Amino acid sequence: MLTKLLVANRGEIACRVLSTARRLGLQTVAVYSDADRHARHVTLADEAWHLGPAPAADSYLNQAALLDIAGSCGADAVHPGYGFLSEHAGFAQGCAEAGLVFVGPPPAAIAAMGDKAAAKTLMAGAGVPLVPGYHGEEQSHERLQREADDCGYPLLLKAVAGGGGKGMRIVHSPAGFDEALAAARREAKSSFGNDAMLLEHYLPEARHVEVQVFCDSHGNGLYLSERDCSVQRRHQKILEEAPAPGLTSAIRSAMGEAAVRAAQAIGYCGAGTVEFLYTADGHFFFMEMNTRLQVEHPVTEMITGLDLVEWQLRTAAGQPLPLTQEQVTLRGHAVEARIYAEDTGHDFLPASGTLYALHPPPLSNKVRLDTGVRQGDQVGIYYDPLIAKLIVHDHNREAALAGLARALEQYRIGGVKTNIGFLHRLCQQPAFRAGELHTRFIEQHRHSLFPAPGLSTGEVLAMAALAYALSLPKPGDAPFATSTGWRLNQAAEYRLRLEYLNDVHEVNLTASANGWRAQVSEQEHELSGELSGEGLQLNLNGDRIGLHVALHDKHIWLFYRGERFDLRRVADDTGAGHAIAGDSLTAPMPGLVAELKVAEGDEVAEGQSLLVLEAMKMEHPIRAPMAGRVAEIHFRAGDQVNEGDELLRLKPHD
């Protein structure tokens, strides 16, 4: 068995690997960048070594530094986690040359599947069905355009070296091909150092079903059921479940056996995932193979009762697989929701900030949370904005989804925007609960997944004002030190200016005989309540409501039925504006100006792409909200911008 393991990763997956390694008695080594000096994974390891500056290229992608640390600390194995160098054949080879065990497949297997075009050729030879498309070596614009026209639209552009939704674009017509190809190539070059593309016919109603495979160095291979990962945004998975609902036993077996053939065709060893597109008529097509542990591996662990990281470590040490295919048993259903820092109301843009309030749901043998952060940590701009993975297991799918809804309702985060409210709506959406899944699910059901808030603006403002008032010291405790509206022999009164949904509102809260009266614009709300810790029980206009509250500095967060309402106390008329302010455009997130598409003086049409902002290795086009002329440009390509910075100014047409 191995003795000392270096985990060449960060965040949630580093914590996950360290947990199993320590349980098995291995000595553990963490690495960290400047941004992660105080991160949770650093505290979990027996020792931690500094890698370099915050950017991944200078730290977690620095192969030489990682190998130097592994040699200096006396490690005999390296676990790459997922992302970063986990599918880098050169790094696996470097580990081997340094006498280190790479906890993953052989370099040749990584190389074979890392080039998605070459992988398709291999899979065709192994009898695995392929999606129609082009995966040739010639990469001229003319050849790709010709192949796209021959393949037909809609079309999916995919980076040959890609993964995680990066370097991917859907093209609906020939008119959009040039812009999509240029953007996909830029993103692929930035993320993987390789801008080669392959083309696939896009199957919009297909499901994304993947099979977990495991192989050892003794020629054994098996599959551990499959997972459905169809619910995605930006071509990235957001919710996964196992087993995939609605598959017949015949399809399940055929898909699993094809996945094992795919792995054994390249001399695989360790954990891997073979991804398929599955159509309503029962056909499945090979997409790609991920030669690493997947983000969503916990759902497989929950239905099999196995520790896949332990299996990785044992097979990397040369041990045979502990089970045969016949011995693999499944129980119940598991579903995983990825908790991201992102703004779901603005096309899932990545978010950053401080986790001022962090209250996970109660954990049990049915509810599991894999995370790499703690309260007070920063979600920065350098890495993937994943906060945690919430996994729920139960005896069937219906019970698991009900449990996930409850857990999401109990999960409270304040300080950075998250997708918790969206996930709560998603797991209760009727079509989703019925198993009507495909990769365009979010787009198709947008009207039910992005509803108006369940509370009126006046109700939210009244409750926030009451929560703030109840959180203040009582006048009897410090009558002359308090900064509230309390006055001797007068009814308590609070005059607040609260920013909500980018508007500033005046709220007057006055004590009444039965509690409080909140005046919001021309409306009055009668309410009473009691704040105990973060729980607020109140009566609002005759209705009993229970919710939770978190406050930090001038921020007030209300948590109600899985949704979060964000408010801020302000002292003047300045409102937040991450949207368009007058004739200017501001940055919706911190990032890098990847490309300027216009110059000062240019005439632009409504919806035209003006510049491209890169954040967390994803590109986000900034488009004109109206027709007009570019009056001023405040940044150049390559400049770093902060959230809210004015990028350029438009002079609208009369």
TrEMBL record:
Record's catalysed reaction(s): N(6)-biotinyl-L-lysyl-[protein] + hydrogencarbonate + ATP = N(6)-carboxybiotinyl-L-lysyl-[protein] + ADP + phosphate + H(+)
Residue ranges of domain Biotin carboxylation in the record: 1-447
Cofactor(s) needed by this chain: biotin
Keywords, ordered alphabetically: ATP-binding, Biotin, Ligase, Nucleotide-binding, Transit peptide
Residue ranges of domain Lipoyl-binding in the record: 578-651
Gene Ontology molecular function terms on file: ATP binding; biotin carboxylase activity; metal ion binding
Name under which the protein is recorded: Biotin carboxylase
Purpose: This protein is a component of the acetyl coenzyme A carboxylase complex; first, biotin carboxylase catalyzes the carboxylation of the carrier protein and then the transcarboxylase transfers the carboxyl group to form malonyl-CoA.
Species of origin: Oceanimonas baumannii
Pathway: Lipid metabolism; malonyl-CoA biosynthesis; malonyl-CoA from acetyl-CoA: step 1/1
Gene3D superfamilies assigned: 2.40.50.100, 3.30.700.40, ATP-grasp fold, B domain
InterPro entries referenced in this protein's UniProt entry, alphabetically: ATP-grasp, BC-like_N, Biotin_BS, Biotin_carboxylase_complex, Biotin_carboxylation_dom, Biotin_COase_C, Biotin_lipoyl, CPAse_ATP-bd
Boundaries of every ATP-grasp domain copy: 120-317
Short name of one Pfam family: CPSase_L_D2
PANTHER family assigned: CARBOXYLASE:PYRUVATE/ACETYL-COA/PROPIONYL-COA CARBOXYLASE, METHYLCROTONOYL-COA CARBOXYLASE SUBUNIT ALPHA, MITOCHONDRIAL-RELATED
Assembly notes: Acetyl-CoA carboxylase is a heterohexamer of biotin carboxyl carrier protein, biotin carboxylase and the two subunits of carboxyl transferase in a 2:2 complex.
Domain of life: Bacteria
